[in-house]
Amino acid sequence: MNSKTSLAHKLFLSSAVATVAVSIPHLYVEASIENAATENKELRYGNTGPSVKFLQENLKRLGYYPYRVDGTYGNHTQAAVQKFQFHTRIKVDGIAGPQTFAAISQITENPIDNSVPVQALRDSHLLDGTFIQYALNLIGTPYIWGGTTPNGFDCSGFIKYVFAKKGIHIPRTISEIWDYGKAVQKPSVGDLVFFETYKPGPSHAGIYLGGGQFIHSGSSKGVTISKLSHSYWSKRYLGSKRIAQLK
């Protein structure tokens, strides 16, 4: 085991090494990321310590984590990982595993544009990726009943806000948006997906991202990415609608 790998290994075993890392942070950051990618390390919600801190520092360098680096894998860190995973075409689960660490390491060494990949928009009826980018930039925003601003959104407030950023004005409530949209048999990127949750009829919705994923403001996590195939959502799925004003 070479010295670089040995140092990285220690980072995952002892928080004491974090003190030394302050003097040569980049060596330790790169080593820990590399080690995680090759030794099946995983970081997830609830974890704390120097490994989480180094993950946050790398995500911050890449523009995904604008918050304070505190070594706690909470909602903000999970949201940043989700956004990074979506952009790099990795399974979006909010868990920083070997594939995520490998992608972070590669991009850190070879910086690329972090805009929405063209492939993600291949089946889209949108003209560009800015619409989806507006939505992705809001990941981690808390859920607030009746919320319509980046300080907090409910599900329809989030959707209405994102469409308004493109100059498209839609109704306020989920039931009104359901009636307003044009039904489509299969959702395309940018279409809306609707669910029956706490009452009969459409009561929740999100923006389809492609690949069976959608972004929405949920009561438990705020703005986040979820899978249509998840048992909770698949059982409650009502259908998809397209906002006809999109040109």
Describe the structure in your own words.
Strand 5 and strand 6 form a beta hairpin. The N terminus is likely disordered. Helix 3 packs across helix 6. The strands form 2 sheets. Strands 3-8-4-5-6-7 form a 6-stranded antiparallel sheet. It has a two-stranded antiparallel ribbon with strand order 1-2. It is α+β, with helices and mostly antiparallel strands. It folds into 2 domains: 107 residues, PGBD-like superfamily/PGBD (Muramoyl-pentapeptide Carboxypeptidase, domain 1, Orthogonal Bundle); 125 residues, endopeptidase fold (from Nostoc punctiforme).
Short description:
The chain has 247 residues and is of the alpha+beta class.
Q: What features would you highlight for this structure?
A:
247 residues, single chain, two-stranded antiparallel ribbon, 2 domains, 6-stranded antiparallel beta sheet, alpha+beta, endopeptidase fold (from Nostoc punctiforme), disordered N terminus, 10 helices, Muramoyl-pentapeptide Carboxypeptidase, domain 1
